[in-house]
Write a structure and sequence with these properties.
The structure is a homodimer. Chain A has 2 domains: 3-85, Arc Repressor Mutant, subunit A (Orthogonal Bundle); 89-167. In chain A, 71% of the residues lie in helices and 6% in strands. The first copy, chain A, has helices at residues 3-20, 25-36, 43-50, 54-66, 89-116, 125-153, 156-167, and strands at residues 70-74, 81-85. Chain A is elongated and about 70 Å long. Chains A and B meet through α1, α5, α6 and α7 of A and α1, α5, α6 and α7 of B. Chain A binds a DNA duplex through α4.
Chain lengths: 168, 168
Amino acid sequence: MELQEAKDRFVQAWGTLATQWGINRTMAQIHALLMISPNPLTTEDLMAQLQISRGNVSMNLRDLMDWGLVFKELRPGERKEYFFAEKDAWKVAKQVAKERRRREIEPVIKLLDELRGVPVRAGDADSETFHATIESISRVVNLADGALDAAMKAEESLILGTLIKLLR
Amino acid sequence: MELQEAKDRFVQAWGTLATQWGINRTMAQIHALLMISPNPLTTEDLMAQLQISRGNVSMNLRDLMDWGLVFKELRPGERKEYFFAEKDAWKVAKQVAKERRRREIEPVIKLLDELRGVPVRAGDADSETFHATIESISRVVNLADGALDAAMKAEESLILGTLIKLLR
DNA sequence: ATTTAATTTCAATAATTTTTGAAAGTACAA
DNA sequence: TTGTACTTTCAAAAATTATTGAAATTAAAT
């Protein structure tokens, strides 16, 4: 396989994977391109490589910066902006975990805590099943939340060691 | 909060969360309803509670069964089918992890292995960055894959212990 | 065999999400 | 202050995804 073909396949696959996880395809493709590029790219570069509009690039770059995955570089004497991405996949994973936790898991934990507070009507099957299920989900969500929190703070090598013990 | 309001909020929130993770809203809502229902429900029940069409219920139930999250119950002497869901959230999480791993992570690992095989052109920044990034992603994806595999096989209580150690 | 009670399928439609492109905005340089 | 080189915004259009509903299918009961 040629390098160019490999790059294209990677960018394509990353976009497809992203949609399966609720992330916009183009955003993932821009991120993929920046991750494999040795130097920062301009809006024009991204427009050309992905064959998409200026507005599309601009909006998705903003989202990627909001996610803390892409950064802007300003070069003295140049007006246009250059963009680059963190290339260490472990740092990227930690950042994604951090953001999804804040944006999505935290509100769910809050709701589950409220729902746990609804009084149980003893003898009422509906009420009892509802409570048992919410309790069960609550435990798992809090477990996942704790796991993400732990993973976020840890080094990749440390996780590997823990994992090996767990797999034994 | 009333029980009915609590149920509605849960079903609603579960649907919203699902879309953020690439899962169809209605599928998640049907699953949520079945998880909090003490007894199996019919297609009619689901149509009425979610105000959706028969075809929609039928298709989403099939998907849920394909995911191994919902099961069919046939009652002797009755023609219509009853559906119920696994209520243990840890088992549900394990099943989801198992399926996503098989459907999404495995193909990605296969691709990354192919891309790792593309020869590096020493001195070529493009080629070197591409390889370094693919290697980095590959390590993290394999780590995540291993973590999911370990979690899938473990008991909830066991995970908690490991997690506490990791958090310390 | 026919009727009946259900489920499934899928083309058409609706809803949602993404993308475009041109106008508005920004800010540097002359 | 005007021009220039760029970025951002956002309403409209396009693309994608989800839903409907009626016809086809299935299979049990008569």
